[in-house]
Amino acid sequence: MQVVMITRYASCACGRVQCRAVGKPILSAVCYCDDCQEGARQIEVLPDATGFRDADGGTPYLTYRDDRFSCTTGEELLVDYRIRERTPTRRVVASCCNSAMFLKFGPGFWVSAYRARFEGDLPPLEMRTQTRFRRANTDLPHDVPNYGRFGMRLFAKLVTARVSMFLGR
Ligand SMILES: [Zn+2]
Asked: Does a structural domain hold residue 1?
């Protein structure tokens, strides 16, 4: 039986860079960790950068397996930003219009794409992570599980995704 997988597109603000994500993401989450906040600030001050964070400072991501996410147009315009010289995490920005496109943790098999870049019907939020770093005057909503750190469910999802990938599914 052929399983039809939904394809979603993420575009930079000016449209010169486009990425494609296939299937259901491993995870749809908002992260408040200090690195995500620092990384966001670094990108937000770039000329003409468009916002990609929620009002309370959290960064929403759709996380996909490496083999299900690719840049289809304008790859040569992508530039890496790192918050420390030797960190394995890079935040990849479309240099044409300074749109944050995705985050790549070196050793990982996944890509966390910035949700704000996607169009169309998006999967609902599943969890908030690293909420101990959240600094906001508003109360944390309780519509989805909130984790002070990363939460076991996140690791469980990564393991499941890894096994599927290994089995060629
Ligand atoms: Zn652009």
From this structure: no
Q: What distance in Å separates the CA atoms of residue 130 and residue 152, rounded to the nearest whole number?
A: 12
What percentage of residues in the chain have a pLDDT greater than 90? 84
- Count: domains in the chain: 1
Q: Which residue has the tokens 């039809």?
A: 4
Whole-number Å distance, alpha carbon 94 to ligand 1 midpoint, is 5
133 in a domain, yes or no?
Answer: yes
Give me the pLDDT at residue 1, please: 61
Give 73 Cα–ligand 1 centroid separation in angstroms: 11
CATH number at residue 76: 3.90.1590.10
- Range(s) of the domain holding residue 47: 7-166
Computed from CA positions of residues 149, 28, 82, 97, in that sequence, does the dihedral angle turn out positive or negative?
A: negative
Of 19-28, 29-38, 115-124, 155-164, the one with minimum mean pLDDT is 155-164
Q: How far is the CA of 13 from the centre of ligand 1 (A)?
A: 5
Q: Give the pLDDT mean for 54-71.
A: 97
Q: How far is the CA of 97 from the centre of ligand 1 (A)?
A: 4
CA of 54 to the centre of ligand 1 (A): 21
Tell me how many helices (H) and strands (E) the chain has: 2, 10
pLDDT of residue 3: 72
